[in-house]
Design brief:
152 residues, mainly alpha, two-stranded antiparallel ribbon, globular
């Protein structure tokens, strides 16, 4: 019982620490019109704090994924990240693999991307910062939203 209580408090402390670290990111990324101009087009870098905090990733610090960001504010563009850097079979550090995300590599979508074609990646369906459990009615991949997501 004492071990479970200790684990609980470590998880709570880690989540609180992540939220404190994320506050610095939201100083800029939490502003609705925050973004950059790339190739003559505005690219939004806004992240809704409310939606992020409702996501399955809310317990993590932004730099858990954006590992190359060492100082805030960062003056260089962070490297692109991919969900499979955490979500892979055998990872025991908090990234569930119930849906076998590495199976994506075998999908028609991944094969099309590999050929240089425009096709969906993880983020196109599950979003980047607002990932919710599939059974959550607010999830982008909730069963009633899939037809619109794929065909809309």
């Amino acid at each position: 019982m004492k071990v479970w209580i200790l684990i609980f408090f470590v998880l709570i402390a880690n989540q609180a620490n992540s939220q404190l670290k994320n506050q610095r990111c939201f100083v800029c990324h939490g502003v609705k019109n925050f973004g950059i101009v790339e190739q003559g087009k505005f690219k939004s870098l806004y992240v809704s704090r409310e939606d992020f905090e409702a996501s399955v990733h809310s317990k993590f610090a932004c730099v858990s994924c954006h590992v190359d960001v060492r100082v805030i504010p960062h003056l260089t563009k962070p490297r692109k990240i991919h969900c499979l850097q955490c979500h892979f079979e055998g990872n025991v550090v908090g990234a569930p693999v119930t849906a076998k995300p590495e199976k994506y590599k075998e999908s028609v979508h991944a094969k099309a991307v590999a050929k240089g074609k425009n096709a969906p990646d993880c983020k196109d369906c599950h979003t980047v910062h607002y990932v919710r459990k599939p059974e959550d009615p607010n999830s982008s991949v909730y069963k009633t939203r899939v037809p619109e997501l794929c065909g809309g």
